[in-house]
Amino acid sequence: MQLAPGKPTDLITDLNAKMSLEAKQKLTKLYGLDRPWPIQYWEWLKRLSKFDFGKSFKDDRPVIHKILERLPATLLLNFLSLSLIFTLAILIGMTAAAKKGALFDKLTTLFVYLGFSIPTFWLALLLMILFGLKIGLLPISGLRSLNFEELNFLQKAWDMLQHLLLPVSVMALTGLAALARYTRSSMLEVLHQDYIRTARAKGLKEREVIFKHAFKNALIPIITLLGLMLPELIGGSFIFETIFAYPGMGRLGFEAIMSRDYPVLMGIGTMVAFLTLLGNLLADMLYALADPRIRYK
């Protein structure tokens, strides 16, 4: 951040023609930017040990307050995206593996390659133009309408659902394509195992063979990929929350980048690191549920 062009004081000093050189120097000293960056970082680490993220350069508000205001919206967006990815990708991958070489398998393969190839920010803009401007079916920005407080409970839920539909769908696309293909590969590997042939030879129904015997053993690599998707989604929220003007942590981070608000950026970086570790921890815990041979002491 220190190597990036511009300084946090530029927005204040460059727009004020009456700002003297002495005043600029005092402002730089007030923010502690006159000291070497290793010392600045050490001071930040000492504050962080007390759970103090400092104050924003932009409005002098505590960073933790600004993050906590935006964090629920980002968690909601990522939770819905992960739920959509997990549910649809596993169903698509399992069905494609069970019907290898069939028309459904070929169509899903095409869908996967399209999901990998299409730039999601470009797709987001196209969907905004189509559903928001041309058809006028869905809102294209924010999380709530202007008259949100005047609505009843069901109307509020429907209003938020409409606002979430586009960002959740676009965020989930790449992860859905990746996990669907990964699920298919994992299921195909399991379906060629000896115990699957034995289960079929015993006369078990194909549905029981797929869901009871094959699926649980194919879950381990899928859980690993899901644990790695959480930081990727949070990183992607910087782009999508900005495109959709979504009031989340990603948009706050983008605004902090534009204004060189170092304390906010450092706070968001810390939160992203924490959520990444949390995602890996949840993946490790799910291993034990999926495979009874794994036990943690």
Description:
The structure is a single chain. The protein is an all-alpha fold and 297 residues long. It has a domain at 76-237: MetI-like fold, CATH 1.10.3720.10. The protein is built from eleven helices and no strands. Helix 10 (249-259) packs antiparallel against helix 11 (262-290). The longest helix has 39 residues, at 153-191. The two termini are 41 Å apart.
Q: Report how far the terminal alpha carbons are from each other.
A: 41 Å
Relative strand content: under 5%
On the 0-100 scale, what is the average pLDDT?
84
Unreliable stretches (pLDDT < 50, length at least 5) are none
Could you tell me the number of beta strands? 0
Largest sheet: none
Query: In terms of structural class, how would the helical and strand content be classed?
Result: mainly alpha
Oligomer: single chain
**How large is the radius of gyration?**
24 Å
Shape: elongated
The H-and-E topology, N to C, reads as HHHHHHHHHHH
CATH fold-level label of the domain at 76-237: MetI-like fold
- In DSSP terms (H or I, runs of 4 or more residues), the helix count works out at 11
CATH homology group of the domain at 76-237? MetI-like
- What share of the residues lie within helices? over 70%
Which second-level CATH architecture of the domain at 76-237 applies? Orthogonal Bundle
**CATH first level of the domain at 76-237: which class?**
Mainly Alpha
